[in-house]
Design goal:
The protein is built from twelve helices and 21 strands. By secondary structure, it is an alpha/beta fold. The protein folds into four domains: about 60 residues, CAP Gly-rich-like domain (SH3 type barrels), CATH 2.30.30; about 150 residues, Leucine-rich repeat, LRR (right-handed beta-alpha superhelix) (Alpha-Beta Horseshoe), CATH 3.80.10; about 130 residues, Leucine-rich repeat, LRR (right-handed beta-alpha superhelix), CATH 3.80.10.10; about 35 residues, no CATH class. The strands form five sheets. The chain has an eleven-stranded mixed sheet with strand order 10-12-13-14-15-16-17-18-19-20-21, with helices on one face. The chain is elongated. Pfam families: CAP_GLY, LRR_9.
């Protein structure tokens, strides 16, 4: 806390008594004397007004109670990267035990934050550090140019989530000093991103994992920044209210994992815009309100050219209630694992068995391996359960008389094939 204000105070991220906010105003607020900062709280319930006082609007808030005026002495503007790193790993006073030990993730990578005693034993100097977590350490800026590179040049994995970083440019100033950076977590930093493509540099030339959950980034901003991430393989964009507005052209072509969960503005039609990503294996679409999916290039019983490499699909916590959704998934040529828990369809009788029967190549369902005998049983039960419906629709064991109507074939695309494979009476 200090009465000395940064020159670029407007737009800065700050912390006040454990609450996070963005500075929207700096100046006098008559009739009370002295300097005030007008802040917009991340939690609007923390505020008192919309940025106005006694009829004068000093700044604007998105929420009518999102704003407050606070004295500069009450505000924490944060530390530079290296100061925070030394506090966490080297110079911080505290017990020499494991009380401060915790485990954090940067994408799919595990980062162990350990106590002073273990740091002094295993990483006695900053230069030895490779995987670090500065979660919730009030990091706000890079600091003096070149000091990070000089002090800790071997860092590869960085968790900078829940800090006070304000702009993508400040992130670049940190990252350009970490020449071997492979994974970076910036979640819960309310960042201002470039409105157009930044100048191409080698800053992120080794970056493979980037976590941008709850940063406020838009899809357009993702594509503007993406040329700077030439080898990126994992991108996490959870809870940003993203809408997919355009195709990634000549960017994100090496991406294997994309997490778009908790972005309710995404709908089925937008998914086609990312369907051509050639290496996308793992797609997370949980909690986006998804109820249907369709691959129009493939007819019943055929494979789609969309999402050619997709092996793992997660659609938990959505509004999936129709079996047509599962029928469409059988069109994916590479799909091996599906997780679709907490959907209305999950409550259907023998839902998992039916899903197994409907998707031929599925090997894992809801994180459980599908054993060969389990698949055989599911397919046999499925054939028995809908046998009468098949016959009423025109199905018949005699191939010459077997003519189920289009409605049945649409509802049960694999049924005839299952009859062939389980009874071998006839084949189509």
């Amino acid at each position: 806390m200090s009465d000395i204000l940064p020159l670029d105070v407007i737009g800065r991220r700050v912390e006040v008594n454990g609450e996070y906010a963005t500075v929207r105003f700096c100046g006098a607020v008559p009739p009370v004397a002295g300097l005030w900062l007008g802040v917009e709280w991340d939690n609007p319930e923390r505020g008192k007004h919309d940025g106005s006082h006694e009829g004068t609007m000093y700044f604007k808030c998105r929420h009518p109670t999102g704003g407050s005026f606070v004295r500069p002495s009450k505000v924490n503007f944060g530390d530079d990267f290296l100061t925070a790193l030394k506090k966490r790993y080297v110079l911080e006073d505290g017990p020499d035990d494991d009380e401060n030990s915790c485990s954090l993730k940067v994408g799919s990578k595990q980062v162990q934050t350990i106590g002073f005693e273990h740091i002094t034993k295993k990483q006695s100097q900053l230069r030895a550090l490779q995987d670090i977590s500065l979660w919730n350490c009030a990091v706000s800026h890079a600091g003096e140019q070149g000091r990070i590179a000089e002090a800790c040049p071997n860092i590869r994995v960085v968790n900078l989530s829940k800090n006070l970083l304000s702009t993508w440019d400040e992130v670049v100033l940190i990252a350009e000093q970490l020449k071997d950076l492979e994974a970076l977590d910036l979640s819960e930093n309310k960042l201002q991103f470039p409105s157009d493509s930044p100048t191409l540099t080698r800053t992120f030339s080794t970056l493979k994992t980037l976590v941008l959950n709850k940063t406020g980034i838009t899809w357009t901003e993702v594509l503007h920044c993406a040329p700077s991430w030439p080898v990126l393989e994992e991108l996490y964009l959870k809870s940003n209210n993203i809408s997919i507005s355009e195709r990634p052209v000549n960017v994100l072509q090496k991406m294997r994992l994309l997490d778009l969960s908790s972005n309710p503005s995404i709908d089925e039609s937008q998914l086609s815009l990312i369907a051509d990503l050639p290496r996308l294996e793992h797609l997370v679409l949980s909690d986006i309100g998804l109820s249907s999916i369709h691959f129009p290039d493939a007819e019943i019983g055929c494979k789609t050219s969309m999402f050619p490499a997709l092996k793992y699909l997660i659609v938990n916590d959505n509004q999936i209630s129709e079996w047509s959704f599962i029928n469409e998934l059988d069109k994916l040529q590479s799909l091996q694992a599906l997780s679709c828990t907490r959907n209305p369809l999950s409550k259907a009788d023998k839902a998992e068995e039916i899903i197994i029967a409907k998707i031929a190549q599925l090997r894992t369902l809801n994180r459980c391996q599908i054993l060969p005998e389990e698949r055989r049983g599911a397919e046999l039960d499925y054939r028995k359960a809908f046998g009468n419906e098949w016959r009423k629709a025109g199905g018949h064991p005699d191939p010459d008389k077997n003519r189920p109507n289009a409605a049945f074939l649409s509802a049960h695309p694999r049924y005839q094939l299952l009859c062939c494979s389980t009874s071998r009476i006839w084949c189509t």
